[in-house]
Specification:
Elements: H1 2-7, H2 16-24, H3 37-45, H4 51-60
Length: 72
């Protein structure tokens, strides 16, 4: 639920394998509109996180592994 509040409900195009697994397990995703990661973190950390760090986290926090930034 926490992930959905930031990333929003994954679409079929964003996370096809997640949708397939959810269908197999008879799970339905809540319909959630994404909100800014910066907004979530600034509430907790009072803007102590740089824009570069936010950018990196946004690239890491993707549903599909194909869309996530690599360690390389």
């Amino acid at each position: 639920t926490r992930i959905l509040t930031v990333l929003g409900t994954p679409t079929q195009q964003e996370w096809p394998e997640g949708h397939r697994l959810a269908q197999q397990k008879n799970i339905r995703f809540q319909n959630v509109i994404p909100t800014s990661l910066k907004q979530h973190l600034s509430t907790s950390y009072r803007n102590d996180i740089s824009d570069t760090a936010i950018d990196l986290m946004e690239k890491m926090f993707k549903y599909s592994t194909d869309q996530r930034i690599s360690a390389q």
